[in-house]
Specification:
The longest helix is centred in the C-terminal third of the chain and has 35 residues, at 359-393. The mean pLDDT is 87. The chain has two domains: 16-169, no CATH class; 260-453, no CATH class. The chain is built from 22 helices and no strands. By secondary structure, the chain is mainly α. The relative contact order is 0.09.
């Protein structure tokens, strides 16, 4: 056994013990999930999909580990694992030192508490507040996984599944006749299954976003178990904002409208009702901006400056061949507005099939093509104004579309690398695809269309 733990930034391969242990671990998880499913599906029919969805999540975690170990041969996921491994080693070596490092802000003094025996977290991750949050969250899973990359990732995927399952249940509650469609759009969406099951920021923020949406609905709209759901909502907000604050920026406007939607629907005049929505949307954006700027110091100018810097960085020669260009813009509102069209298209639908240059991107390109075709069919069936009217009449769909558009615009403005883009998109894709599924289903449902005419 080596006296020192060395971080390489890559794995030489999955340990034979991991490969022997993971089938047993997988069997235990699936047996347990099948027990949960059989126990609850009598009262909640959607639980017939619980085990299938979890199996897909576990498959995504295994595939993710395999790809990053043998295909990419490294990446941020390995650095997160190695950093969290150092924390686990410190916990086992000296719990008091671990508590000091784990619960304190990053500092050079705390870095000295690690040693060659424990290994060191990667400096560029430890000293960055956002990635340090990820290390904190990953550490318990590395402990549970006995410092195995594969088993730790599977543990993380198991816990992350709770959020995506809650989103599935929420859609089923609104549209129970569409369970099978939501099974594909929420639980089996290829991008979310793969990128949302690994040891990455995106796995945490996707699950956190799903929990935020579900607990927001329960607290403000259904008004159920307000203490429990209020705590979950606060925790989800803190986790998301600490890692990717722009997700909160995208969530708040639609969430505020969603909360007041029942009052808007009480307006008898259709003209006044539809006029109230854009007015409320504007007020929601202003309220959200005031809240973020006053409480957490958010600045729209800072956001644009960071977006320009990130986009410029991702255009570097090192990323050539896997990049795209929406055009150069200034870090101002008018500058961003000038490229908002291509940024929105990129955030929602790229990479296109002809943009892809490897198998992983090709799968994303095929997925985007299917989504785009479905949206075109909806637009053709309902026409533009019909689609807008349908969105305004369905609060959950309205929220999902609003959130997806704002989020896709933000990542379209700040990202010019396809590899980063496909990962970032999973935070809104299940909501966006499910909203399109709803419109696709009802735009072709004759009974529904006839009832609306009558």
């Amino acid at each position: 056994m080596r006296d020192e733990v060395v971080n390489l930034g890559y794995l030489e391969g999955l340990d034979p013990i991991e490969l022997i242990a993971f089938p047993s671990f997988l069997i235990v998880i699936l047996v347990w999930s099948n027990y949960i499913s059989s126990k609850k599906k009598k009262l909640y029919p959607e639980y017939r999909y619980y085990t299938l969805g979890l199996a897909a999540k576990m498959f995504g975690a295994i595939a993710f580990c395999w790809v990053y170990t043998y295909y990419y041969k490294g990446g941020d996921t390995i650095s997160y694992f190695e950093s969290a491994r150092a924390f686990v080693n410190l916990l086992l070596d000296d719990p008091s030192k671990f508590s000091t490092v784990y619960f304190s802000a990053p500092s050079q003094e705390n870095m000295y508490l690690f040693s060659g025996k424990t290994g060191y977290p990667w400096g560029y991750m430890y000293f960055d507040k956002k990635t340090f949050w990820v290390i904190r969250i990953v550490t318990p899973f590395v402990f549970l996984g006995a410092k195995s990359y594969l088993l730790s990732t599977m543990w993380m995927a198991l816990f992350a599944y709770s959020g995506i399952w809650k989103l599935f249940q929420l859609f089923v509650r609104y549209y129970p006749q569409m369970q099978k469609l939501f099974f594909f759009s929420v639980l089996l969406l290829p991008s979310a299954v793969f990128w949302g099951s690994g040891m990455l920021k995106d796995t945490i923020t996707l699950s956190g976003t799903c929990w935020f949406i579900y607990s927001f609905h329960e607290f403000f709209i259904s008004k159920k178990d307000r203490v429990k759901n209020g705590i979950v909502l606060i925790v989800a907000f803190i986790v998301i904002f600490s890692i990717k604050p722009y997700i909160i920026i995208a969530l708040l406007p639609g969430a505020i409208i969603w909360n007041f939607y029942s009052k808007i629907l009480l307006i008898k005049s259709k003209f006044l009702r539809y006029s109230a929505i854009p007015f409320s949307m504007t007020m929601a954006v202003l309220l959200g901006y005031l809240f973020l700027s006053s409480v957490v110091g958010f600045s729209f100018e800072t956001l644009l400056e960071e977006a320009v810097i990130k986009q410029t960085d991702l255009k570097r020669e090192a990323y050539q061949g896997n990049s795209f260009d929406i055009g150069t813009y200034d870090a101002t509102f008018l500058g961003a507005l000038g490229v908002s069209g291509p940024a929105l298209v990129a955030g929602l639908f790229r990479p296109f099939i002809w943009d892809t240059k490897n198998v992983v991107m090709l799968l994303s390109g095929l997925e985007n093509s299917i989504i785009l075709v479905m949206l075109i069919i909806v637009l053709w069936r309902k026409r533009i104004f019909g689609v807008f009217r349908y969105i305004f009449d369905h609060p959950l769909v309205f929220f999902c579309i609003t959130y997806s558009l704002i989020f896709s615009l933000i990542i379209g403005l700040s990202t010019s690398n396809f590899g980063a883009l496909v990962r970032f998109k999973i935070a809104f894709l299940p909501m966006f695809v499910s909203a399109i599924m709803v419109m696709y289903y009802y735009s072709g449902n004759r009974k529904y269309l006839n009832s609306k005419k009558n």
